[in-house]
Please model this.
Amino acid sequence: MTNDKPYLALTAADKAIMESYAAMVPNLGEYLGEGYEIILHSLENLHHSVIQNVNGHYSGRANGAPITDLALSMLSKIEQDQSHANICYLNRSKSGVPLRSSTIPIFGEHQRIIGLLCINFYTDIPFSSVLKKFSFDSPVVPPISPEIRENFAESTDELIETALMEIKNVIMDDRTISSQNKNKEIILELYHRGIFNIKDSVIKVAALLGISKNTVYMHIRNVKAKE
Model:
């Protein structure tokens, strides 16, 4: 008879952490692609430890499956290592397929390990399937408009200034926007990019545009009112 006694009693905070990982796993799987198997284990109950999976069919595991001896072995190694770092290693599937694997500890309250995120890359996947994720002709990779690029700034001041300059160049060249609405449209775009979540961004944007901070606040309020 299966023993369902909890291996580790999880607190409400621990369970919330595991739920957040469970929500993340499908998106991570979508990003990595079909060659990756992702298994999320909760240590609350080792008999039914798998609480989320992507491509679990590779190893025949589904939600509710028990933990494996290898996962327990990796857990023991992580617990013995004072750094509690993740472990990367070479492995083989039941059918002998070479795997590149990683076991990542998940920490809960009081720095207890409450779960494991196990990732296996199946090296026998056709290379064409791997490349498909990097093709801009693929329907799963929507094109990025030419005026939008990720800014790898060294400070938030630089981030604000770079984003503003990019937006300003586009809007100033747009003849369909009247002169009196240029700053309004710039602030609207900055708002939608989340720039105003940065501390003191309103003051910095106002200075760069040569307008008052009250004017910036007014446009932000109008945007929020419409939404």
Summary: The helical segments are 12-32, 69-80, 127-132, 156-172, 182-192, 201-209, 213-226. The chain has two domains: 12-132, 156-226.
